[in-house]
Design a protein that fits this description.
This protein has helices at residues 43-51, 93-103, 108-121, 137-149, 167-186, 200-206, 224-229, 234-239, 273-279, 299-305; strands at 4-12, 18-27, 32-36, 58-63, 66-67, 78-81, 155-159, 192-197, 209-214, 217-222, 246-255, 258-263, 267-270, 286-291, 296-297, 312-324, 328-335, 338-345, 360-366, 371-374. It is an alpha+beta fold. α2 (93-103) packs across α3 (108-121), α2 packs parallel to α4 and α3 (108-121) crosses α4 (137-149).
């Protein structure tokens, strides 16, 4: 068993600053969990407490059935991949990978078998006789991962391991790490993985579950699709997704017996009946209206997706900028003094060109995919 249980974990520094505020989290045995959040949200601090590199101020941390609060890192059954690789420059790749096993007095024949097995998994058998200075960034990162694999830990810890790589290499490495975790699980060597990143694209593509953190507190823990489609609050909604969700102030109003949202001074936005029921107690109150860029279309494109479950609300905005991304077009427009981003398929945006800039244009909001958040607490009122 290599599940990781955090029970009321806190971190308070000598100056009184509380970085982690009593979090509870259960990482399942063999799961790939991603910690994501902005800089300063304490994701690396939590990871270091799990690793034993940072002292826990209060609370209980279990790895498997063992309380590990007072155990040294080497006694916890973990292996950690750092952001800077942490390779010994005077040792060849083979020796970098084998060092921990030698210090644990593993027989030489088993060390060789483990190192070569990890090299095969990571497709780096030709790198074993090189020195770190002879490696590219991606190769060095694979060595750092391989050094962890040979230990056969119960828990892998990754602290922003891809942040020093260029975008193309980062994309290929995140696929490789994800595949590697699945290969180990399939081969009978399942390891729990906890991966820290500030990149929500990495989080969405790698995590079986994602823990979203803010200011040392957990905002939401769930599978990627649920985080994206059913965010519990405005912070999660705005942080997950690229381009980010449009979240703008609005007022709940009763209009001709119907519940609507008033954006600015004159734009009324219709809401689905099941949203209206939940918003009826908020009439007259300011809320936050949220809609993802891909849930905004032209009347023509929205009509193509229209079915009996789709609720459309048409609004008129002024186009400010078009960004052509190949198969997509990002349309930036102003509506009642607020900036919005629409994400259109290229075919749906053919009627738009630079001549449309600063001119009014009608957009369709797909309202059954929109969200309304409490103006004060930020909690999602439409779940």
């Amino acid at each position: 068993m290599a599940n990781v249980s955090l029970n009321q974990i806190r971190k308070t520094y000598p100056n009184g600053f509380e970085a982690v505020h009593g979090i509870d989290l259960e990482v399942k045995d063999g799961e790939f969990m991603v910690f994501v959040g902005p800089s300063g949200c304490a994701k690396s601090t939590i990871l270091r407490m799990i690793a034993g590199l940072e002292k826990i101020s209060s609370g209980d941390l279990h790895i498997g059935e063992t309380l590990v609060n007072k155990l040294a890192p080497k006694e916890r059954g973990i292996a950690m991949v750092f952001q800077n690789y942490a390779l010994y420059p005077h040792m060849k790749v083979y020796d970098n990978m084998a060092l921990g096993l030698k210090m644990a007095h593993i027989p030489k024949s088993e060390i060789e078998e483990r190192v070569k097995h990890a090299a095969r998994l990571l497709e780096m058998e030709d790198l074993l006789d090189r020195y770190p200075k002879q490696l590219s960034g991606g190769q060095a990162q694979r060595v750092a991962v391989g050094r962890c694999i040979v230990k056969r830990p119960g828990v892998f810890l990754f602290d922003e391991p891809l942040s020093n790589l260029d975008a193309k290499l980062r994309a290929s490495m995140r696929v490789r790490i994800t595949e590697l975790h699945r290969e180990l699980r399939k081969s009978g060597q399942p390891s729990t993985a906890i991966y820290v990143t500030h990149d929500q694209v990495e989080a969405m593509t790698m995590g079986e579950r994602i823990c979203v953190l803010k200011d040392g507190t957990i905002q939401q823990v769930d599978v990627p699709t649920t985080l994206y489609e059913r965010p519990v609050n405005a912070f999660v909604a705005g942080f997950i997704g690229s381009p980010e969700m449009n979240i703008r102030p609005a007022t709940v109003v009763a209009n001709d017996g119907k519940i609507s949202l008033l954006l600015g001074e004159s734009t009324l936005i219709d809401v689905p009946a099941f949203y209206a029921e939940k918003l009826s107690g908020h009439v007259g109150r300011e809320v936050k209206f949220g809609i993802r860029p891909e849930s905004i279309g032209t009347p023509q494109s929205a009509a193509l997706r229209n079915d009996e479950d789709t609720v459309l609300s048409q609004v008129t905005g002024t186009i400010r900028l078009l960004e052509h991304m190949g198969n997509e077009v990002y349309v930036y427009f102003d509506l009642e003094g607020h900036s919005f981003t629409a994400r259109l398929m290229a075919d749906d945006a053919r009627m738009l060109d630079e001549s449309m800039r600063f001119k009014p244009f009608t957009f369709s909001f797909i309202m059954n995919k929109a969200h309304v958040f409490d103006g004060e607490t930020g909690m999602n009122l439409t779940l």
